[in-house]
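Chain and conformation:
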Amino acid sequence: MKLTDKQFWILLIVMVYASVASAQTVFSVEKISETEYVKAERECSRYNVIPADTIADNDIVSMVLKESQAKFERLDSAWQQEIYAIYDNSDFGFNKRWLTFLPELKLYGFNNIPESPHDDAIWWFDSENGKYICRAACPTAINTNGIYVSQVGYDCDWPLDLRFFRREGNFIYEFESYKSLQYSGEGPYCQTEESGLSTIFWHDNNTLYVKTIDHKRQESVYLKIKVQQTVRDMLENVMPNKAVRPAPIKSVRDNKKGGKH
């Protein structure tokens, strides 16, 4: 039987919604032993993107720094002064010290523009042409598949509140989040303990490992979080022109007024 155009589109919509209905699980969270965590941590260099140790002087870097300064100068003057107050006036500046370079992802980032006293944002630029992409939360860990995670900060005793981002073309967007009041976010906010063990890192197959604290038991726990982007998510983030919708970005003043508690 030959399908008409109308029948074809109806069938396609039914198939898509069936796929969405069967793809609801985004996170699989599992407690693991310290032994398993340590073993995975030994292999994490294969799966994590590490910022470059040095950044060469070139026209793109100059362009990124110049645009970052221009963006800063367009902020509300009172907010500029608050940023200067957070960072010593002599320390804050528009130079390579404040840049992050991710060669594997072709990204430059200008760091430490606070959204609040406990959360920093980063301005991302394409490292090949120097064009501004967007502002997003500072990454805590980035994997080689281009997914990065950040921990949302709070005043004190904050919960585990992870936000997941990825880049698609000229957009970086938040595609999912995971929050648990049972666990503390203090661990992953500090990426490495004094012992040298990373408190958050990626492993194979978009699996995130986190060392944190169980508030109920008042003890350290090790979590393995499997992240899987669903059909639903992909559909919700695709616009009519096939571009990917960027994460909603509040203005700096909105963030400042609303705060985080």
